[in-house]
Every structure is written in C-alpha cells, then in structure tokens.
Prior knowledge:
By secondary structure, chain A is α+β, with helices and mostly antiparallel strands. Chain A has two domains: about 5-95, Roll (PH-domain like), CATH 2.30.29; about 145-270 and about 295-370, no CATH class. Helices cover about 50% and strands about 15% of the residues of chain A. In chain A, α2 (about 105-140) packs antiparallel against α7 (about 250-265) and α6 (about 230-245) crosses α9. Chain A starts with a strand and ends with a helix. Chain B is of the alpha+beta class. Chain B has a domain at about 205-270. Chain B has helices at about 15-30, 35-50, 65-95, 100-110, 120-135, 150-165, 175-185, 210-230, 235-270, 285-320, 330-370, 395-400; strands at about 5-10, 50, 55-60, 140, 145, 190, 195, 270, 275-280, 370-375. Chain B has a ten-stranded antiparallel β-barrel, surrounded by five helices. In chain B, α2 packs across α3, α5 packs across α6 and α8 (about 210-230) packs antiparallel against α9. Chain B is globular. At the A-B interface, α2, α3, α7 and α8 of A face α1, α2, β3, α3 and α4 of B.
Amino acid sequence: MPAMGRFFDGETGQRLHVDLYIDPVAETLRLEHSDLPMGSQYWPLWAIRALSENAREDQLVLSLKADTSLDSALIVTARLTVDDPDLTFRLLKLCPNLQRRDIAPGAIRKVAIWSTGAVSALLLMIFVILPAMANTLATFIPIEREVAWGRTVVNQMERFLGDGSVGRLACDNTEGLSALSEMTDRLTERAALQYDLNVTVFDHKMVNAFAAPGGQIVLMRGLIDTADSPDEVAAVLAHEIGHVESRDVTRNALRTAGSAGLLSLLLGDFAGGGAAVVVAEWTLNASYSREAEAQADQFALNMLDASGTDATGMAEFFDKIGELDRSGLDLPTYLASHPETKTRADAARVFAEAQGLTAPILSQREWEALRGICS
Amino acid sequence: MNTQIDGRYFGKGGPLFKLYLVTAVLTVLTLGVYRFWAKTRIRKYIWSSVSGDDDSFEYTGTGLEKFLGFLVAIVILAIYLGIVQMALFFFGLNLFVLPDTPGQEIAQFFAIYVTLLAVVPLMLFARYRARRYRMARTRWRGIRFGMENGAWGYAFRAIGYYLLVLLSLGLLNPLATFKLEKYMADRTWYGDGRFVQTGKWTDLYGGMKHLLIAFAILAAGIIAVAMAGTRNEVGTGVFGGVLLFVGYVWALIGLIYYRVYAFNYLTARKRLDDHVTFLARLETSAIIGKIVVGSIVVGVVVTVVFGVIGSIGAGIFMSMSSGTDFDPNAGTFLGLALIGVLYAGAILATGGLSLVLITQPVIAHAVEHVTVLQAEHLDSIRQRSADKGADAEGFADALDVGGAI
C-alpha cells in the first residue's frame, strides 16, 4: 500500500490523489496517477523544497526548486502535500536541500543598488535640500507672522515650566525691568536690528535662556542668580540676540518639519523605533546647532565690544556652566547641544585681551535691581 | 469534490508566539531591517494555518522583495514628504496671527500638525497596493489570487467617500464601506475566476444601530454635563459623566458590531466566477469576548511582569546609589539602559501577546465561520497569468499601513 499525497499542478484547480514511491537508488520521488501526463512524474530528491513556517505539524508541503525570480509571483511550481507520517520521516531524512531558501541571481546586486539609492536620497534631503529650503523659506516669512508664532512658543514654554497658565511666570519688579531694558538698550544701541526685541525673565531655577522666533528672548532667574556680574548676563543676552537676528529658531523648525517625517519613515515601528527617531532627530539637531551656536557667540562678542563691555564676563559665565556640567546638576538641555564650554570660554578670553577700554554694562545699583527682578 | 467547504484554522498560540519573539529580537538587533522578513514569516505561518477542504493556503511572498519594495518607496517618499511637509509647515506659519485667546493659540499650535495630512492620499494608495500584493502572493490549491491595478482610483474614491462620511457626521459610513469594498472586490480574481460584489449599501444600516444608540447616549451625556455646568448641579454632572462613559463603551462595541455585520453581509454577497458563493456567520459576541479577554490578559501580564522587573531594577539602583563611592553618572547610565530595555521589552511582549491572544483568535473565528458554496465549480478554475505589477507593498511598509499582519 503506497503512501498518498495531494498533488496540484499549478495550472488547474484540480486535486490529484497521487501514489508516492521513494527510489533511494535513483534518488527520486515518483508520483503516480492516471491523470498525470504519461501516468507518472519524477522529482529528484535534491531539488525538493519544503514550505517554511508551516503551521501544520502533521503535513509537509513540497515544491520543486524553480527558476527563481525576484518577483515571487512569477514563480510557477506544482505543490505536493504529504501527510503520511512514515513518508514524511523518510523525506526529511533523504532530501538534502529540503529547508534551503533559494535566492534569485542578481538579488544582492539589486538590494545594494537600491539601498545606496535610498540612503543617498535621504542624506541628500536631510543634509542638503531641506536645510537649503529652510534657509530660503525662513527669509520669506513676514516678520509679523514670525512674531505671532514666537509669542505662541513663549506661552507654550511658560505653560510647560510653570503651573500651566500664562502670565504668572514672568517677573515684573519695576526697577528690575528697567535695569533689564537698560542692559538691552546699551547692547543694541550701536546695532541695526531687524527685530524689535522683547526680553522677559521667567521665575524658574533653571540656568538657561532661549530665543523664540520674532525677537522673543527669555532668561531664567537661575541664570541671573548664577551670574556674578552684569557683564555675564549681558553676554548671554547678546548670544540670544545673535540667534534672533540669524533666524536660527525659525530655520530649525522648518528643517525639522521636513526631516522628522523622513526619519520615522526610515526607522519604522519596531520596538524602540519611536525612541530611535527622537535620538536621531536630536543628534541631527545638535550638529546643526553647534554651527549656529558658534555664530551666535561671535555675534555676541562683537556686540559686547561695540557697547564697550568686557568680554571676560562671557568667559567667566562659560566657566561656571562648565562646572555645572561636570557636577551633573540639573543639566539644561540647551547647553548639551552647545560647543565645548572650555573652548568657548577660551575664545572669549582671547577676544577680551584685545579689547580696548571697557566699563561694566550696569551700575552696581542697576545690577542689584536686576537681581531682584523676580521678587 | 464537496459542494460545500467550511474554513478551518490550525494555528496555535505557542509556535506563533515563539516565531514572533525570534523575529522581533532579530528586528531589534538589525535596527529594524529584519522587519520585512519578520512579517513575511508570520504571514507564512498564518496563511498555512487556514485550510479549506483540508488544502492549506500558502503565502508565497518573500522578505527580500518586501525590503526592495521598501527601498524603492523610500527614494520616492524622501523627496515627496520632505518637500511637501516643509511647504505645508511654511504656509501654516504664514497663517499665524497674534493669538488673542488661549483657544486661538492652541488652534494655531495644532495647525502645524496639518502637515500630517500630506501623507493621507499616499496611505490610501498604499492600502490598496498592500492588499493587491497580499492577494498576488496568496495561493490555494496552487492557484493564485490577484487584483487589478487601481490604487490611485481607490485613493481618490476613498478621499471622496471619507469626506462625505465626515460631512454627514458618520451617517454615510455604510456608503463608504460598501463602495470601497466593492471597488476592491470587483477587481479581485482567483485564478481566471473573477469576484463580483453584489448587494446594496443601504443594507448596511442594520449594522449601524449600536453606533447610533451610542451617539444618542453620548449626546445626552454632553447635554447633561453642560446643564450641570450652567446650573451648578453636582448630581446632573455625575449622571452626565456616567452617560459619557456608557456611551463610549457602547460606541466601541458598536464599532465591532458594525464591522462584523458588514463583513458577514459583504461576504455573503460576493460571487466568484458567477457560480461560487459564500456564507459568513461571524458572531459579534464571540469576537468581542476574544478582544476583551485578550486585552485584559495582555494588559495584566505586561503590567505585572514589567512592574516586577522594573521595581527589582529600581531597588538595585537605589541600593547602589546609597553606596559611598557611587559614581552618579554610571548610575544614571545603568538606569537609562534598564529603562530602555524594559521599554523595548514591554513593546515586544505587548505585540507578541496581542498577536497570539487577540489577532489570531479573531482570525481563527472568522475563518471557521466562513463557508464556500457551490464549491464543485472551483475544479474548473485555471491559473491566471501572474500580476507583474503587483510589486511589494513598499509604501505600506514605509507609511506603516496595515496593522498586525
């Protein structure tokens, strides 16, 4: 009594119950049925493949090695289902290439070509086209739109840092405010700025400052508390004015709008994929901002010099940030993307040595008032 | 040849979970590249679990062609998405005015996310292509399924019908369901036999009843809450809150009811090659049971297992921190690494358990409640020539369309 198998020829929907015989000498599997052409078919054992990941443990679905194609729909082969346990056992033992996966010739080359294409398209977009577009578009946005957007960003920031409402975090001591505007005026009196500056202090312990689009600048109380002289605060303020003038934030937001989608596209949704996108975007951002930071530093040094303020204040403030960094205290996120503080401090010191006559940017009384701006 | 064929499902939880775990780990180790092979292997398992008249289905797709399709899609999408997203963002910015009210401000903040709409037509396009690819790679008795080209036609129609659904506040949902399924079904083939979708879209309103009830309850809840707000009545507020919760749960169940109803109706009114007909008798209660039980088990297992591991890890971390010569940076790094591993592990476990405890049981139920009638005609169906254009679902992979399998 021969073992039976169900045979499909791959051309018709007809099922043939064929008799199966293994010929160990000729190393073939013989299929017999009166409806087969010539009554029988011979399958060489070495050319038999079994379908992978078959859920049915009680059967084997076999096919013959076919001329493989990259488009798997084009492969036409017959199928033979075997569920006779004894025959299954013998086939597993006698067919040498049963589990082998055949790869179409040229597949590796095709993958290599398209991988290169995909990677170059992404790199070109992320590093060349998107930044260039962002730079151009940033100059097209009308200033009043940018100001409106900047207000929204500052309000969002205030909600995030404070108790969720707007208007509570901003410090409003009258003398402090006038000292602050005094400092801003002295810094900017010799500069022709495209933006009207709107400088605010938030009552928050973070040692940080940020520039939002359209001339919005926010200093944190922690930064003023950490500074030992008004010149140090002026250095940070001048640095942020540099960001405002070169439209760094607007440019960055435009660029991110383009590239964030691309990165999530590439990495997909595997476990941790979301986190990987955040990390990749952050790294990309840091590489762009290092350049922007260096430019803002240079802008700040020139501005300090033009207003007759000693750039040593900048060097001293960078030294302090460097120490905060090392002691691992609450590291402000924005500092992490800044160039090495030591290098920046040294650059400021070199610049300061070449400076002529300087004076503190605020009088002792004004400095006291600024320190009390949040009280 | 039997004149009636009942679907059977042979897949088991254990082997599928093991397959998922192995492929998921490989996916993480290869930074996501293996995901095309992972999905292919899982499909092969699920397809081979389905059988009719004791002949199993077969999935003939390969991971390699999926990967290639993805690379091709990336080249096209990189250019399209990068430029379109930035352009939309730019025009979004140009709409900015000085915000007067907090509401306006929040609206502007979200206006930026309008850029996400840029991918909607592509996602619909990808949905059709993905189905076409799956059909072209599915065989039963050695005969291929297939679908005609028509992805853009589908995408445009889908946008139109979904806009109608939106404008009619959901009331025209059956129209969209029926017309879009008919568009796809009428282009589907088994060998040289063509499928035809018959029936009327208005017949699907029977399936909408629980959704309509849910909306009535939700509306009542909103009115009650609003009244409580103006009149300052606590009792009415609580009542409104209860109504909102009941309405929400009712809507979730109503949605499943609708989908099952639509599946049964649409399947029963499909014909293959003018002779073969189908019967689908899926039970809403059974499917809801599987989804609810499955979700609870997945939720509890993931929470308990990762809660325990997490607190043990936190305990070790704390005891290390209390040591005198403890380096805070090393500790932070360890902590972050632990969180990262737990995060990835929890996502993997949730995915695998959902596949085994929710997706597979629902598929099994569906398969075992579908019957093919006049099946003797299947013998006369012959192979179709291969769909050369049905290349891999690269866009669907890139845009994350298609769900679990």
